[in-house]
Design brief:
By secondary structure, this protein is mainly alpha-helical. It contains 16 helices and 2 strands. A hairpin with a 2-residue loop joins strand 1 and strand 2. The longest helix is centred in the last third of the chain and has 39 residues.
């Protein structure tokens, strides 16, 4: 829980035994070691209890990543990506999944994720009050860009919404008010990032989940959601960013150039991609095909599917798509159980948001975001396996009842 709460500490970089690392990785490795020692007899048993399709999907992603890394001049950056965005968070998430299965503290993990984003939102608002913003008045706090701040804050909205609804149903007034104020703080910080992609993705995720769970209130949910979106846009109509969204030098125009450049890279390297960590250099190489560039510092292709294709090859992209298909198919079935729908909803909202925002940005290819993704996969695995066990027990109970009556 402490490791999950400290996700932003990946920004504090250091060397351990001569190897570059960061505080988040060290906490994760420490957690893995302690968990491994305490559960050394059950590790393989827990591993092989994971859904086989999930293991195959992740295995295909890793194979694609290794091939792309090996055949594209592997360097320190690529190896660092393999370690920090795949190997360490994957093992940590597996340890988390195994611990959830034993101790069932899923709700505490939700709280850790929510309070982590809440603390970051508090700090970000202090930056805003002190006037520490970007040249175009966007809030980024201690992150490299406003979009990175927005991508970290957005998932916190879903886990905070879970507690808000839970306490409202339980009529716990003070807890409800605390969650309401906390969510308001988080949303205000998210608003000041002026990340339209994050706004639309969060709203879209909330809308889709509301329709999925509360089908008899579709019209009211739509009205509320679109009222929120409309109010955001009203506040933005006079801003330079909104008014110039379709101009030749807007962020949308930059995205189009980046996507065109990325597609050309895919065309030239369709099978193995360009290797992890090589996008910035390749992007500059392709400048001659798209004069003039509107942005020069572009570490990712601003699309999650293009990012996986380019940095893990076609094989990695296929594994990633298989993983998403498996998650959505099964989490949708789990969500149909109205008794546990609220419990499952935050994880469902995260993956909806991940795909929506992933169409115009890359909410994975960064230390904290990679951890968030793999942690959410482990939460899904726990919910999925728990549902399967419940169904098996229900069927066994029915069979026992039939046999007893006979």
């Amino acid at each position: 829980m402490l490791t999950i709460f400290c996700l932003p500490l990946y920004l504090i970089r250091l060397k351990f035994l001569g190897l570059p690392t960061n505080i988040l990785e060290l906490l994760a490795v420490l957690t893995i070691v302690i968990w491994g020692i305490k559960n050394r007899k059950n590790i393989w048993k827990e591993f092989f209890l994971l859904p086989k399709f999930l293991l195959i999907s992740v295995g295909v992603i890793l194979l694609g990543l290794l091939l792309s890394l090996f055949f594209n001049n592997p360097g320190a950056t690529g190896l660092g990506i393999l370690k920090g965005w795949f190997v360490v968070p994957l093992i940590f998430s597996f340890a988390l999944y195994a611990s959830l299965g034993k101790e069932n503290f899923l709700e505490k993990i939700y709280a850790s994720l929510f309070f982590s984003s809440l603390l970051v939102s508090f700090i970000a608002l202090v930056y805003k009050i002190m006037g520490i913003v970007t040249y175009d008045n966007r809030l980024k706090a201690f992150f490299d860009s406003p979009n990175y701040l927005a991508m970290f804050l957005a998932p916190g909205v879903f886990f905070g919404t879970y507690f808000l609804i839970k306490y409202a149903l339980q009529k716990r007034r003070y807890c409800f008010l605390f969650c309401l104020l906390s969510l308001s703080c988080l949303l205000i910080a998210l608003y000041f990032t002026y990340s339209y992609g994050a706004w639309v993705s969060v709203v879209g995720s909330l809308l889709i989940t509301t329709i999925a769970i509360v089908s008899n209130k579709k019209i009211s949910a739509l009205a509320i959601i679109f009222a929120i979106v409309f109010s955001f846009l009203i506040f933005q109509t006079n801003t330079e960013k909104f008014s110039g969204i379709f101009s030749e030098r807007s962020s949308l125009a930059s995205r189009l150039t980046i996507w065109k450049s990325s597609m050309l890279m895919v065309k030239k390297n369709p099978w193995l991609g360009i290797g992890p960590g090589n996008f910035q250099n390749k992007y500059l190489e392709f400048q001659k095909y798209f004069p003039p560039y509107l942005e020069w510092a572009v570490p990712t292709p601003h699309n999650i599917f293009l990012a996986f294709w380019l940095q893990t090859g076609l094989l990695g992209l296929i594994g990633f798509l298989l993983l998403l298909c498996f998650v959505f198919k099964n989490i949708w079935n789990v969500l149909k159980n109205k008794k546990t729908a609220l419990f499952v909803a935050p994880v469902f909202m995260f993956f909806i948001y991940f795909v929506l925002h992933g169409l115009i940005d890359t909410p994975f290819w960064k230390n904290d975001l990679a951890f968030l993704f793999w942690i959410s996969v482990s939460l899904f695995c726990f919910l999925f396996c728990k549902e399967i066990k419940s169904l098996l027990l229900l069927r066994q109970g029915k069979c026992f009842s039939i046999r007893t009556k006979a």
